[in-house]
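Title: Comparing notes on inverse folding

I've been comparing how different people in this forum approach sequence design from structure. To keep things fair, I'm posting one structure and asking everyone to reply with a full sequence. Here's the target:
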């Protein structure tokens, strides 16, 4: 008789991870690692969706968010879901806004797991009660003003017969009072504190969407903050700060001084190249929507580039017009089992500082970096290096690159080998989101960094959608601008310096 086998799955584990208050950059290192390795992520409304991009492609994503008056899943059902997933052997990340154990109901979820003898770990997060005031320029403790700090839930029903909050104690404890989830109850909160002895001129502030690009904050006193918040249309999620420290906001505010705060900017670069532009825009306060209109892929036939690299000794100059060309060249070089010693006798031209920087990443300092990507600048730069008469030039670039550069180099008596190093193919991700933003007139800028991004964008998005809207267009340079005009759009901002930094500068200037 065959021995009976135990087919019951080994329990997995649940990690209750604090996602922080909103800014995805405030996730902890441990939290990031767990998101990347999880089988299943059960996430809240307040957990920034950018964090989900860290998950593996095959991770299961389950939304259980709660908003005022709208609960996707009751708390008891969330508890049961976690128990079920861990029992099935899954590695589960329960991604919760802020910190799991500070008004996050993480204790209830942990108890449900513990009562079922299932393993779990708690990964603390940056709590909104400290981080959101900090982003508004309010230190929740400050020498001489506040040496104690109290966190309180503002999510109490004012119609209840008896409050669980000791209002008399709060009104007399001193220091700083920080209320979570209290927008709806703000009039009741201020009334209770005043009725229990806190002076009406006590400074107060309320911060909505804290740490995010659409952060808004207002200040006042205990007597008028509810009226001021209503007039400013402050809506959840928000943090309320009451105490002397709220008076420091005007002196210490920093996040709301960022030049692009509140601006929604669509980036049309290929996803692999969008990160640096996105990071720089986000650092200036913008909300970035990645709408990659192109994907970078290897050429269908890689042999011409491989042959050119094997016979690289035949070339005097290698000219790179983009980061993608550099990446494609060196990927092929390495795949052939070669390294930079193979290209020790060639000279290198990099069109643009970003391309030069990418060359430097591979240990090559460009011999030539023309000031601008225009014919006159490139020609003058080569002439300053002795010209190109009878020189062999390798030009590894995109499949759709214009013939202009080849014609320019050949006009200087160079022998040019123009090779397809990579292809640009259409990518229509986030199409529906972008159309919604345009139709609701919520988008402020669209950036174009090449003619191909323009063409692919308008293959997906009708130019008519932009007409009559506030959205502005930023072009990296004259070649890209010419393509924009071909679609009947004549109002746009063109970078003075034909680089991504130039695009950012022109956005900030407008």
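Reply #1:
Here's my take.
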């Amino acid at each position: 008789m065959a021995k009976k086998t135990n087919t019951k799955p080994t329990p997995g584990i649940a990690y209750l991870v604090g996602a922080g208050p909103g800014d995805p950059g405030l996730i902890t290192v441990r939290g990031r690692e767990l998101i990347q390795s999880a089988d299943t992520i059960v996430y809240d409304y307040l957990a920034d969706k950018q964090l989900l991009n860290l998950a593996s492609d095959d991770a299961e994503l389950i939304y259980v968010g709660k908003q005022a008056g709208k609960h996707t899943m009751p708390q008891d059902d969330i508890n049961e879901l976690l128990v079920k997933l861990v029992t099935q052997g899954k590695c589960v990340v329960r991604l919760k806004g802020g910190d799991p154990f500070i008004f996050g109901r993480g204790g209830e979820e942990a108890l449900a797991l513990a009562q079922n003898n299932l393993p779990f770990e708690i990964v603390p997060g940056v709590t909104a009660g400290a981080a959101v005031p900090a982003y508004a320029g309010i230190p929740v403790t400050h020498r001489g003003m506040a040496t104690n700090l109290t966190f309180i839930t503002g999510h109490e029903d004012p119609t209840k017969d008896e409050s669980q909050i000791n209002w008399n104690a709060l009104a007399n404890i001193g220091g700083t009072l920080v209320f979570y989830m209290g927008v709806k109850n703000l009039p009741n909160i201020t009334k209770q504190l005043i009725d229990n002895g806190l002076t009406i001129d006590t400074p107060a502030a309320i911060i909505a969407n804290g740490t995010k690009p659409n952060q808004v904050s207002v200040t006042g006193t205990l007597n008028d903050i509810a009226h001021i918040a209503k007039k400013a249309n402050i809506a959840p999620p928000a943090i309320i700060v009451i105490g002397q420290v709220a008076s420091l906001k005007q002196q210490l505010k920093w996040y709301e001084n960022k030049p692009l705060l509140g601006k929604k900017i669509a980036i049309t670069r290929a996803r692999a190249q969008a990160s640096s532009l996105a990071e720089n825009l986000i650092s200036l306060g913008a909300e970035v929507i990645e709408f990659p209109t192109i994907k970078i892929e290897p050429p269908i036939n890689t042999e011409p580039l491989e042959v050119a690299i094997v016979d690289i000794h035949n070339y005097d100059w290698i000219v790179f017009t983009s980061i993608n060309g550099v990446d494609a060249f060196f990927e092929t070089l390495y795949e052939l089992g070669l390294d930079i010693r193979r290209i020790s006798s060639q000279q290198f031209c990099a069109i643009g500082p970003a391309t030069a920087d990418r060359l430097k990443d591979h240990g090559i300092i460009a011999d030539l970096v023309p000031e601008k990507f225009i014919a006159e600048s490139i020609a003058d730069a080569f002439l300053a290096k002795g010209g190109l008469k009878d020189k062999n030039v390798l030009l590894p670039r995109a499949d759709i690159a214009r013939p202009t550069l080849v014609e320019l180099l050949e006009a200087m008596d160079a022998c040019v080998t123009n090779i397809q190093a990579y292809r640009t193919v259409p990518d229509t991700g986030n199409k529906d989101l972008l159309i919604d933003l345009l139709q609701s007139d919520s988008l402020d800028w669209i950036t174009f960094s090449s003619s191909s991004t323009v063409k692919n964008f308008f293959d997906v998005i009708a130019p008519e959608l932009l007409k009559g809207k506030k959205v502005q267009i930023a072009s990296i340079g004259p070649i890209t601008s010419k393509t924009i005009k071909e679609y009947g759009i004549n109002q746009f901002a063109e970078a003075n310096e034909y680089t991504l930094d130039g695009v950012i500068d022109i956005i900030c200037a407008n």
